[in-house]
Amino acid sequence: MTNLKSFVSTKMKMTAIYQPVIIKVLLENNGSASYSTIADELVKLDSSKPHSFYIDRLAVHPRTVLATHEVASVEKKVYKLEASYTDANEIILILNNKIAQFMSK
User: Fold this and answer.
1) Alpha-carbon span 105 to 55, nearest angstrom
2) What 3-state class would DSSP assign to 50?
3) FRET label pair with 103: which of 19, 39, 49, 59, CA 20 to 30 Å apart?
């Protein structure tokens, strides 16, 4: 099983903002969140694209990467956290920093 803190700290590649947002939303929602819930957060960060755009994106690229690394799985348009972790708040802080760094580019 993948250690979530290790993944977000050292292995996660930031070519887009999807992975950290998905993981953060999952941690904030007891390990499970719908495409729509995650898309809501993405729209808050970048409202230049419609909610439906993000729902379509969530079905493709981040899904495959997160599944390959055993971080999250998807069933019926719901992401589920698969990786192990002990301190959600610490991981959320790391993710917030990664999101802020990405958004400042």
Assistant:
1) 24
2) coil
3) 59
Q: Are 23 and 4 in contact (CB under 8 A)?
A: yes
Percent of the chain topping pLDDT 90 = 91
Number of Cβ atoms within 10 Å of the Cβ of 103? 10
* 4-103 is classed CATH 2.60.120: no
Contact 71, 9 (CB under 8 A): no
Residues 18-29: what's their mean pLDDT? 97
Determine the residue type at 55: I
- What are the boundaries of each domain within the chain? 4-103
For the chain, the first-to-last Cα distance in angstroms comes to 33
The DSSP secondary-structure symbol of 33 reads E
Place of tokens 């802020």: 100
